[in-house]
Amino acid sequence: MELDDAGLDPERIAAAIHDQLGETIGPVPVRDIARRLDITKIREAPLNKVEGILVTTPERPEGVIAVNGNSPSRRQRCTLAHEPGHLLMAHQRMVRQDGSGVPAPT
Q1: Domain boundaries in the chain?
Q2: Is the distance from CB of 35 to CB of 23 less than 8 angstroms?
């Protein structure tokens, strides 16, 4: 199944990603998956009140992920696996630098 055919169904999205990756041995290559999903940069930064953020343009063709550099490496890895889901599921929103939410412009 192609990722474009998966719609917004999380199980279909996961199946499409697994199909594209093929069989993997060892840790899931979360950085490679993020890059294949048009995440152009992955940064570590000291973030307050959040573990990670996804930044995209309004058109959302690509994104940048920042993970909390103060968190343990396993937590950062989990966050890096999580953030592309916001791009794929189209349910991101704008947030202030302090972590509080603001409605995205319509």
Answers
A1: 29-102
A2: no
